Structures are given as C-alpha cells and as structure tokens.
Amino acid sequence: MTIISNYIFFISTSIKFHLFRSLTFFYLSILSKPMFSSVRYKKSTNLSILVHSIGIYLLYSLSGIYNEKISIHKYGNSNYKSTLFPMVLQCLGGVFVSKFLSRLKGESLLIKDFKIIFYYFLLSFLALTSTFLWRYSLNFLSYPTVIISKCCKLLSIAIMNFLILKKKFDNRKYFSILLTTVSVLCFSMSGKSNNFTFKGIFFLILNLSLDGLLNVTQDNVFKKFNVSSGNVMFYNNLIRLIMSLILMILTKDINYSYEFISLNPEILKDLIFSSLLNVLGQLLIYSMLEKHGSLVLTTVNISRNMLSIILSLVLFGHGIGFTQCICILGVIISISLDLLHDKKKKDKLI
C-alpha cells in the first residue's frame, strides 16, 4: 500500500506541476503580446479585464485552498506557524517570473528615475507588513472571516484617497462601502465557532489600512513614473525578499522552518504550489494595476474573495448560519450596486 500511495502522490504532483507550467507559459505568452502592452489596447478594456479576471479567480482560489490547508492542517502533530518563509518563496518566484516576462517583452529593468527607489521600498514595506498581518490574523479568526474582511478594502481605499489625494466619492459609493463593512462585521461576529477575537479583528483593521495605503501608492507610482508592471513587480519582490530573509535570520524563523520541514517534508509541496500559484497571480495583479487601476482590481478581488469563501466552506466544512448567509448577500448586493453604477457611467460617456 505504501508503494501504491507513493506512486499516486508522485503522479498527482507531476500532473499539478505540468498543469502549472502550461498555465504559466500560457499567461506569459498572452501578457507579452504587443496588444496587451500598447496604449491603444488599454482603451479596449473588456477583453483585457476578462483575461485578467479569469486568471486571478483561478490562481488565487487555488492558492487560497493551499493557504488554508497550511494554516489549519496538522503536519505531524502540530500546525505550521511561520509567516515569513512562505513570503520568501513567493518573492523569490516573483523575481524570476517578472524578470523573465520583462525579457520576453523586451523591457529594461534599469531604473531611470532614482526617486522611484523610495516608492519601491515603501511599497515593499507596506506589502510585507500587510501580508504578515493577514497571515497572523489566521491564528485568531477562521479563513472565511479573514477572506470576507478583504471586501472592506474599498473602505480603506476610500479613506486613503480622501486623506492623501483629497478625493471624494458620491453618496451612493459611501452607502455601498458602509453596506459592505457592516455585512463583514456582522459575518465575523455571528459565527457559530468561538474563533472570533478582538485581537484578530485588530490585526485585520491594520491589514486593511495598509492595503488602502498600498493601493493609493501603487496608482501614484504607475501614473507618476510611467513604469511597466514587470518593473514594479521585479523590484517589489526583490526588496521584499531581502527584507524577509533578514527578518527570518533575526527572529530565528529560518531555524524553525528548517526543523519543521525536516520533520514534516510533506508540507514542502503545499508551500511550493501555494507560492507558485501566488506568483502567477501577482503577475496578473500588477498587469491589471498598470492597465486598469486599483479600483477595477479591487472590484475583481472582492468578487474573487466570495468564490474563495464558497470553496472554503465546501472543502473545509466551516459552519455557516442564516445570519452569515444574509451578510454574504449584503456584500454581493454592494458589489452589484457598484458594477451597475459603473456601467451606467460608461453608457453615459458613450
């Protein structure tokens, strides 16, 4: 039986690797085409948004399954607690993939304006800290609660736009944001399990605040310096990789991860596949930011989070009550209001 199970494991791992490799080259070939990087193509948004959205839904939904498995599954007799080593793997993959894509598109990674270095360090710090807080909050809250809280990102973006860019939104937008926020808070506090903690909510609020600042800063970088998505992805991942490695050494997380993986080598394949899926998702995230901005990306991410919640409930058997179903419906209504309003605005412009 051991020989058969090992053979099945080898076959399934090989299939996953070949599928990922095929998917990687498929999206790299699409994103490297001239029409996806030209100014003219940016005006024809429908196909571009569709291609990006499908990729983001697929890749981050699969990555989320692995993330949840890593966070709640016991390898041996214990859970894996490191938040830094998964980030190291993701950043390392991001450096290589973005460099390969830039070479494929014939783009230079040389920095032309050294003022952008400050922004790259700021983006890297915000992204690293935000990811750490997101993963750390999983120690106190269920995965569906953490995922649905990401739907509140619109609130943090609106606040940061107002505080930093002095940008205001209409009353309908504020109502939509309020509906999403209240729905998420009710979802978090009405769970059947006892895993709701104010400590977890505190870390989520910090995470969302940094996410809002990160999105506003990213938009500013693309507009101010006119850089490619590959350039931003390469330097952000490179700086985050260096930061993560330094933190792993200082906190001795590198020793913990080495010992844990040595005792439980089966976790390594989950970490690798989660990181690979995340890297390819990053590719689409940065590309979508460059072409369509953070608000379109956030709307796509919110609807993607709803899919992740459904998958989490189905695959990992999280309990969900009637009140939480109403809360999810509230988020869906909020998203629908945004989409209908944006469609009406586009129709008026046409």
Automatic annotation (TrEMBL):
The keyword Membrane applies. It comes from the Eukaryota. It is a multi-pass membrane protein. The chain crosses the membrane at residues 6-28, 49-67, 87-104, 116-134, 140-162, 174-190, 196-214, 234-251, 271-289, 321-340. One of its GO terms (molecular function) is transmembrane transporter activity. Its main location: membrane. GO terms for cellular component: endoplasmic reticulum membrane; Golgi membrane. It holds the Pfam family UAA. Keywords: Membrane, Sugar transport, Transmembrane, Transmembrane helix, Transport. It is found in: Membrane. This is UDP-galactose transporter. It comes from Nosema bombycis (strain CQ1 / CVCC 102059) (Microsporidian parasite). The lineage of its organism: Eukaryota, Fungi, Fungi incertae sedis, Microsporidia, Nosematidae.
